[in-house]
Design brief:
The protein is an alpha+beta fold and about 425 residues long. It has helices spanning about 55-60, 70, 80, 85-100, 110-115, 140-150, 245-255, 335-345, 370-375; strands at about 30-35, 40-45, 50, 115-120, 125, 135, 170, 175-180, 185, 185-190, 200, 205, 210-215, 235-245, 245, 265-270, 275, 285, 305, 310-315, 320-325, 355, 380-385, 390, 400-405, 410-420.
């Protein structure tokens, strides 16, 4: 029998998948669901259905895979992910086999199908992983250049280290929330350029940051490093990520130690983790890196990903307004380089650690991944369809981010991360 690969663009499912769905049989992401208010459990997704992996296991469809019931009867994916990449790859391949149109084992058992396939309208999505540590990088050259132009000298926009290391900082994992969870406008100290003394109050310059995060498997021991060549084996999958920023709080506090209260009040994550395996067909070359990077940051092959990204602002009870169309391929530093740099000093990573890309901005206006850039620090307000303007995010606005890759008639998507900004408490 000829092996059919899970990414095969000709693969069809016996499940009806709507046209332009983010979740065809070639995707099969992983997440955590509650069904009609029940206990959390591990799931995948195809079309408009969640795939209940706990039920699949109990019914015997996941036999001879290196998993236990506890791996799927869990409120986080971490238990399942601790089995490693080979195991989760076999699991995704098994799901692909069960749902392809020429395989009858599951589809001929209607009562099993009803237990396993749950309509998404009956499902509540939860934060997919228990995140021990969160790192935010700064890996888009256009974004770094734009920020340098806005706050420093356009002729010397990039800081001296930027093209030598994937700059990053450690963020706050406890305030990462799932899509649909509202965020309150934060309060803090601010000092406008014209003021002599700082003031305290709600941030006036609330911003989103369009990012993509990758989630890690269990890493090596403290003291060991992960190379760019090994990095793929330690990356489970990717999510959309909105790293909220209070620009006025951030601007006053970030010298000398970097972001703190301007960033740690909340970040938002999409619920489905799209595996790196599912995104393999969308590999593309990265930019030529000049000056030449140090040997530990060198890599071979195509390690960037062609994923279309979009940001929408929706006023309360209003229409969606597209404010940005960007792409993950615009990163200067890829995930392999980020992980290699993160661990080159012996820093250990753990299962479920989350590494965000930093704001992803494309080379032209309309591709900028933050309101700071879109409105050019408030000097070029974005005109909304209702006649209002946006320099930054207003109370009760909802920011929505969507993303998908498309090639050979196959669309692999992330769904969305949607967050409403509530007034300050």
């Amino acid at each position: 029998m000829i092996e059919i690969k899970a990414n095969d663009p000709t693969l069809k499912s016996w499940i009806k998948v709507p046209e332009n769905s983010d979740f065809p049989i070639q995707n099969l992401p992983f997440g955590i669901i509650k069904i009609n208010g029940g206990k959390p459990r591990v799931a995948s997704r195809i079309g408009d259905f969640a795939i209940d992996l706990k039920s699949l296991f109990i019914l015997g469809y996941l036999d001879n895979l290196p998993f236990t019931l506890e791996d799927f009867d869990s409120e986080y994916l971490n238990h399942m992910m601790m089995k490693g990449k080979e195991a989760t790859r076999k699991l995704r391949n098994r799901l692909s086999k069960l749902f392809r149109d020429d395989f009858d084992d599951l589809k001929n058992h209607e009562h099993h199908v009803q237990q396993v396939l749950i309509p998404m309208k009956q499902v509540t999505m939860l934060l997919p992983v228990q995140i021990g540590d969160y790192t935010d990088f700064y890996s888009s050259e256009q974004h770094a250049f734009n920020v340098g132009c806005l706050f420093r000298d356009p002729n010397n926009a990039l800081l001296p280290n930027w093209k030598h290391i994937p700059v990053g900082y450690h963020g706050r994992s406890s305030s990462i929330v799932i899509s649909g969870t509202p965020i309150h406008r934060p309060k803090g100290q601010m000092k406008p350029p014209t003021a002599n003394q700082p003031t305290f109050g709600p941030s006036k310059l609330m911003d989103f940051e369009l990012e993509v995060a990758f989630i890690t498997y269990q890493g090596k021991l403290l003291g060991d490093s992960i190379s760019t060549k090994e990095a793929d084996d330690y990356i489970f999958g990717l999510t959309l990520f909105n790293d909220w920023s209070a620009r006025d709080i951030q601007g006053w506090e970030y010298v000398p130690l970097g972001p703190f209260l301007g960033k740690n009040f909340g970040s938002s994550m999409s619920p489905w983790i799209v595996t790196l395996d599912a995104l393999e067909p969308f590999r593309v070359p990265g930019p030529i890196q000049e000056p030449k990077v140090l040997p530990y940051l060198e890599y071979k092959g195509d390690k960037h990903l062609d994923v279309n990204l979009q940001v929408i602002i929706q006023p309360e009870d209003g229409e969606e307004n597209v404010v940005c169309n960007s792409n993950l391929k615009y990163l200067y530093w890829n995930m392999n380089q980020q992980l290699a740099h993160h661990t080159v000093n012996g820093c250990n990573i753990n299962c479920g650690d989350t590494m965000a890309s930093g704001t992803i901005s494309g080379p032209e206006e309309g591709m900028y991944g933050s309101m700071l850039e879109i409105s050019w620090k408030g000097t070029k307000p974005f005109k909304m369809s209702d006649g209002t303007e946006r320099k930054f995010i207003e109370d009760n606005d909802t920011v929505i981010m969507r993303g998908y890759a498309s090639k050979n008639g196959v669309r692999i998507g992330f769904g969305e991360v949607s967050t409403k900004l509530l007034p300050a408490k």
